[in-house]
TrEMBL record, chain A:
This is Ribosome biogenesis protein NOP53. Residues 224-272, 313-331 have a biased composition (Basic and acidic residues). Belongs to the NOP53 family. It is found in: Nucleus, Nucleolus; Nucleus, Nucleoplasm. Keywords: Nucleus, Ribosome biogenesis. InterPro entries: Nop53/GLTSCR2.
UniProtKB/TrEMBL annotation, chain B:
Pfam families: Pescadillo_N (PF06732). It comes from Neurospora intermedia. The lineage of its organism: Eukaryota, Fungi, Dikarya, Ascomycota, Pezizomycotina. It is found in: Nucleus, Nucleolus; Nucleus, Nucleoplasm. Residues 361-477 form the BRCT domain. This is Pescadillo homolog. Component of the NOP7 complex, composed of ERB1, NOP7 and YTM1. Within the NOP7 complex ERB1 appears to interact directly with NOP7 and YTM1. The NOP7 complex also associates with the 66S pre-ribosome. The keyword Secreted does not apply. Residues 322-334, 526-563 have a biased composition (Acidic residues).
């Protein structure tokens, strides 16, 4: 006997709300009771399959008022109504939703594209990202994106008559005079200032210095020999400096070694001669020697000791003072010489200035080469890279263009020129990232023992 | 009491800003900040006192003007940089969560502006800001061109993408095309670093350096991110400059670019230039190397139009010729100082050595010649220079790429053959060679085609720099080349210049001295013959001299007399010692004049020196010292130059004697 069910509402008996505790994040996610929602969705799906959502249908579609009997049905029906099998019934069910078409189509992405005919290899996962791609993405995330400047052919004249534009703007301003004027930000005057040149003279250097005759692949003898001699002189100077430096270092090391040896010897002697007569400080030390392990309070000095120290200090002071006076006197005697030196220096400077002025007058700016004297204060944290020696050695000098072995590196040259003109500051290339320092320690596991 | 000023509220502390502060203010990452600074032309500055500027304990190293940075806040590019930063954050967050596909999606969408609606940015507006006028842009073109030509010749790496290189190459070639068409290339110089070019565009001298092919090593200590930023900016700049230049001579920009030809190494030949209004002109100016134009609107119409144009041109040239002829006729009628020109009789014939200065247009220096480049010569620079100086037909070996006028070495129209290989020391019968060449396709190592000038590549450069055709014998294959001098070094007056003839640079005094020496030598050789005649002469001359001198400068005359007397006595003594007859100093009228001239010059010099002494007395001690030093160095230099000139004189004389 069929049980009568109400059309709506939960037929079950009211019961305790069975949502368990939602304390904690995980529990919140896990223990949400979604059966109600799932049921609802299932029901919705079933309704769609049977021909549409019932709630959305008009009542005429759902219901019909049968006014008169249909007599033909009885005739159609067989005498004995045969009930079909349940299995057949189930199999005969058809969904109202049309089936997904199985016809093969080109993918939407490739539609309209002409391919080379080679099918792309199938991937199991469409969203798969290759390792190569991943490393690129990581780089992008680090700010190493490839160029974002769109390079397009110039399609207009950037320097087209500015007056024309101005006129147009003015016209617009007149017609729309009721609008408030938009004030354009003014470029500050500092923007037009020249960058700081790294030359000692402070003059702006040319982007491409004019080459002198000695840079020729087939130079005139005089040009070449002059340049060669000069480079030779420079190299010799550098070598001399290097050797001097080495010598200095050697001397320093020697002196250090000597003093160390002396100190050691003195220590030994001190150990031997404990009985030695001692002054105020030495006494304290030598006393301490005897009782090395024991920390000893400094003893109170006697008046005689204090006086002795005072006398010694005064003597030291006097000697220092005398030395200073002596030095000053010597300098005073040398004052004329110093004045002379200064004057000479000044003269040299003035000469240089005058010569440079002359050069300007003659418009012979050939002097400004890349290897100008640098100013003392550098611009950034790092030094300007050294200039390559651009010189063909005499035995490599060829008179044929075919045999020429080019000197110098233009890339470096350009970069250095940029730095030299103060367009950018020098940077240092860091080939590897600094790794965290690891410290190797030994675990003292032998100490972890239990007394059973 | 004045108001007490707080520290760090005014002055340097306000005017300057450290880099970190600037980056924070603009909310950018440091690399982006660097980029922006390079594009907008904001350079690091240096305050007088660093301590007054930075508040931090650690020394800041880079400072900027605060106003510059403030102005950067209005920059539209800033927004783009920030968008990029947002994207980076999104990607890194997705990667951190392990949502790689999400990260990929973000990146993909950002790279496809048509999908996101966010366009990528251009630097167009920056160009106009940085260079308010076209001439400003031209002034900065040195750096731009050097950079782009360099990058066009780099191998592609991860730091320098191939796309960028291709773009650079294209822009450079377009620029070269402009130079060719407008004939604005002026000088070029083969240095050990690369090839220097100088062009003159609208009155601005532009100098740039192009590396030799296949030579670029990529070194570690160059920051490619910075270089790349510059290149991006310069690519945009050169694009606009090219546009302007092309439109200034009525050409369409960008020119047609043939990908296929470019892949075959046609380089300059891959472009075909077009006039702006094709319909009216109906003419495509292409670097066709004398070939027929393949593509065109309609062959029939084209042919007709061509015909008409040809006719017009012929008419023009005829009228020109007639004008020239008229002019020549005029020249013949009245004698002028101009030097005769030697024209080849037949077109494409031997080029005759031209006299020293020619009034010909230097831009048409190679106009009548057909060149052939041997396969060991550098094709790109040669092609560019030859074309820029008017050459229309250049052939080369097929190894050197497409686009040649001819690949056939034996083409009879070739007038000049540029060759750079050593002469093989094989004994060949010279007489037989010519006949062999006529029949044989390939020639032997030392064999030459007759009727053609063989030169080494340096000839082209020297011709261009001197704006005249140098004599090709000096540059023949195997010959020791004359030194290749820098055209950018202008010799100071009085300085020794190996390129000039001796007469043009020696001082008057030197010339006279040299002549006198010559004369003396001549005398020593054939002195005795004319001895007697000269005796009388000299006496007369002496009298005259004394008369003339008496009034004006008595002292000088006396001195001179004394000098001559002592000289005479010395001569006599020498003669006695050698047991010869006393030989009077033989002075013919010419030498006499020279002597007088010398005296005058010496006197003038002496006077000048005196004047200088007097003027020096007026100077302060410091200035006088300075002046003396300058004089000393100048004298040293001029003595050196004099020595060099004397050496050359001697050499020339020896040569003359030999000949």
């Amino acid at each position: 006997m069929p049980v009568l069910k109400p059309l709506s509402g939960n037929p079950e008996a009211p019961k305790q709300y069975n949502q368990p505790s939602r304390k904690g994040k995980k529990a919140w996610r896990k223990n949400v009771d979604v059966t109600e929602v799932e049921q609802g969705l299932d029901e919705l799906n079933a309704q769609i399959i049977k021909g549409g959502v019932i709630a959305e249908k008009a009542s005429e579609e759902l219901f019909a008022i049968d006014v008169k009997p249909d007599t033909e049905i009885a005739k159609k029906l067989p005498k004995q109504l045969k009930k079909p099998l349940k299995a057949d019934e189930i199999l005969a069910q058809r969904s109202a939703v049309p089936a997904v078409s199985l016809k093969k189509r080109p993918a939407s992405e490739t539609s309209g594209k002409v391919t080379d005919g080679v099918l792309p290899s199938k991937r199991l996962r469409a969203t798969y990202v290759t390792q190569k791609e991943l490393s690129r993405l990581k780089r992008v995330a680090d700010g190493h994106h490839t160029t974002t400047v769109e390079v397009v052919d110039a399609t207009f004249d950037a320097w087209a008559d500015p007056e024309e534009e101005q006129r147009k703007k003015q016209q617009a301003a007149e017609t729309f005079n009721f609008l408030p004027k938009v004030e354009k930000p003014k470029a500050p005057k500092t923007l037009t200032q020249q960058p700081i040149s790294l030359a000692a003279t402070g003059k702006q250097l040319p982007a491409v210095p004019k080459p002198k005759g000695d840079k020729s692949y087939n130079p005139a003898f005089t040009d070449y020999s002059e340049r060669y001699q000069e480079e030779l002189r420079k190299a010799e100077e550098a070598e001399r400096k290097r050797l001097e430096e080495l010598e200095k270092e050697r001397l320093k090391a020697e002196a250090a070694a000597k003093s160390r040896a002396e100190a050691e010897a003195a220590e030994k002697r001190a150990e031997l001669s404990e009985w030695e007569d001692d002054s105020a400080w030495e006494g304290a030390e030598s006393d301490a020697e005897g009782l090395a392990n024991k920390k000893k309070r400094p003893e109170r000095k006697t008046q005689a000791q204090r006086n002795k120290i005072k006398r010694r200090k005064a003597e030291e002071q006097r000697l220092k003072h005398e030395a200073a006076i002596k030095k000053r006197e010597a300098e005073a005697a040398r004052v004329k010489q110093i004045a002379k030196e200064l004057a000479e220096k000044e003269r040299q400077l003035a000469l240089q200035k005058a010569e440079s002025n002359n050069a300007e007058d003659d418009d012979a700016s050939v002097e400004e080469d890349d290897d100008v004297e640098l100013r003392r204060r550098q611009l950034g944290k790092f030094k300007l890279p050294e200039k390559d020696l651009e010189l063909v050695l005499p035995d490599e000098l060829q008179d044929s263009l075919r045999l020429l072995k080019p000197e110098g590196n233009l890339l470096k040259d350009r970069y250095r020129n940029m730095l030299l003109r103060g367009k950018v500051e020098a940077r240092r290339h860091i080939p590897f990232k600094k790794q965290a320092k690891t410290k190797v320690t030994e675990k003292w596991t032998f100490k972890d023992f239990n007394l059973a | 009491m004045p108001k007490i000023k707080k520290k760090g509220q005014a002055g340097a502390a306000k005017n300057y800003i450290t880099r970190t502060q600037a980056v924070k203010k603009l909310q950018l990452s440091l690399p982006d900040f660097r980029k922006l600074c390079i594009w907008k032309g904001i350079y690091p500055r240096e305050p007088r006192n660093k301590k007054k500027v930075s508040k931090s304990a650690t020394a800041s190293t880079t400072f900027y003007y605060t106003k510059d940075i403030q102005y950067l806040l209005h920059e539209p590019l800033l927004q783009k940089f920030r968008d990029q930063k947002v994207l980076e954050k999104k990607i890194s967050r997705a990667l951190g969560r392990g949502d790689v596909s999400d990260a990929a999606r973000f990146e993909r969408h950002a790279a496809r502006p048509e999908a996101t609606g966010k366009p990528r940015y251009t630097l167009n507006h920056v160009i106009r800001e940085r260079y308010p006028t076209f001439n400003d842009a031209l002034r900065d073109l040195d750096d731009c061109l050097s950079m782009l030509f360099l990058f066009a010749n780099l191998p592609s790496t991860s730091a320098v993408p191939a796309k960028m290189i291709a773009r650079c190459e294209r822009l450079c070639l377009e620029f070269q095309h402009y130079l060719i068409v407008s004939h604005s290339l002026r000088k070029s110089f083969l240095s050990i670093k690369g090839i220097y070019y100088q062009a003159n565009i609208q009155g601005e001298d532009i100098l740039w350096l192009v590396p030799y092919k296949f030579n670029q090593r990529i070194v570690g200590d160059v920051d490619f991110r910075i270089m790349g930023t510059f290149v991006e900016f310069y690519m945009t700049l050169l694009g606009f400059v090219n546009y302007r230049l092309y439109s200034s001579i009525g050409l369409k920009y960008p020119p047609k670019f043939d990908q296929l030809k470019d892949e075959n190494g046609a380089e300059l030949g891959a472009f075909s230039l077009e006039g702006v209004n094709m319909a009216t002109q109906g003419e495509t100016k292409a670097v066709t190397n004398g070939e027929e134009q393949e593509q065109g609107p309609d062959p029939k119409v084209q042919a007709e139009v061509d015909k008409i144009i040809k006719q017009l041109k012929e008419d023009e040239s005829k009228s020109d010729e007639t004008a020239e002829e008229d002019a020549e006729a005029d020249d013949e009628e009245k004698p002028t100082d101009s030097i005769d020109k030697f024209e080849p009789v037949a077109p494409g014939g031997d080029v005759l050595p031209q006299p020293a200065y020619s009034s010909r247009d230097p831009s048409q220096l190679f106009a009548n010649f057909t060149f052939y480049l041997s396969r060991e010569t550098p094709r790109q620079p040669l092609e560019f220079i030859l074309r820029a100086f008017g050459c229309k037909r250049i052939g080369w070996d097929s190894v050197l790429g497409e686009g040649a006028f001819t690949n056939d070495e034996s083409d009879p129209s070739i007038t000049h053959h540029i060759i750079d290989r050593p002469v093989v020391q094989a004994a060949t019968n010279e007489d037989g060679d010519g006949e062999d060449n006529q029949t044989a396709q390939k020639v032997g190592p030392n064999q030459r085609y007759p009727g053609r000038i063989y030169v080494q590549p340096q000839w082209v450069w020297d011709c261009v720099n001197d704006e005249e055709l140098k004599s090709p014998e000096l540059y023949a294959p195997g010959a020791a080349l004359p030194p290749h001098l820098s055209p950018f070094v202008k010799a100071a007056p009085g300085q020794y210049d190996p390129a000039l003839p001796l007469e043009a640079q020696q001082t008057e005094a030197e010339a006279i001295e040299a002549d006198l020496e010559d004369a003396e030598k001549g005398n020593a050789e054939d002195g005795s013959d004319v001895e007697n005649d000269m005796d009388v002469d000299e006496a007369e001359d002496d009298e005259e001299e004394e008369e003339g001198d008496e009034e004006a400068e008595e002292e000088d005359a006396e001195e001179d007399e004394e000098e001559s007397k002592t000289l005479q006595r010395q001569l006599e003594l020498e003669a006695e010692l050698q047991g010869k007859k006393v030989q009077n100093k033989k002075v013919d009228s010419k030498t006499k004049a020279k002597l007088e001239q010398r005296k005058a010059i010496e006197k003038k010099a002496r006077e000048e020196a005196e004047d200088l002494e007097r003027a020096k007395g007026m100077l302060s001690k410091k200035k006088r010292k300075l002046f003396e030093q300058m004089q000393y160095t100048n004298n040293k230099k001029s003595a050196q130059d004099e020595k060099l000139r004397a050496k050359r004189r001697k050499l020339e004389k020896e040569k003359a004697q030999k000949a």
